[in-house]
Each structure stands twice: as C-alpha cells, then as structure tokens.
Amino acid sequence: VDEVLAVGDVSFQKKCLEKIAKLKEENKTILFVSHDMDKVKQVCPRVICLSQGKIISDGRLDSMPGIG
Description:
By secondary structure, this protein is of the alpha+beta class. The protein contains 3 helices and 2 strands. The chain has helices at 2-7, 10-25, 37-43, and strands at 47-51, 54-59.
C-alpha cells in the first residue's frame, strides 16, 4: 500500500486511506510498512520499529523519542 500511496493521485490516496479506516473500524489487523511518518501517524495507533531485523521500539508513535 505504501508504494501505491506514494505514486497515486490525491483522489486515489484518499480512497485507499478510507478503506484502511474502514478495516480499522471492523477491528481488522493491518500491517502497514512505510517510511512516510505522516501516513503512519494517520493510519497506525501502534507502531513497531525495526533495525536490522530487531525490534527497537514498540508502542505509540508519539511516545517514541526521535521518531514521533
């Protein structure tokens, strides 16, 4: 989804984000991998940050020093 959001036009991005919001409302698990922190903040209530395949932080994005 991240690459699609990066290259899609604004209308398409909005449609994708609305679908993600609907999945969240349905209590579905979503694995969203991205470098776009604005989109991550918009989509994810919880994040897991990896470095070289190891978890370096896990929790709310706004509580992670230097990230949120």
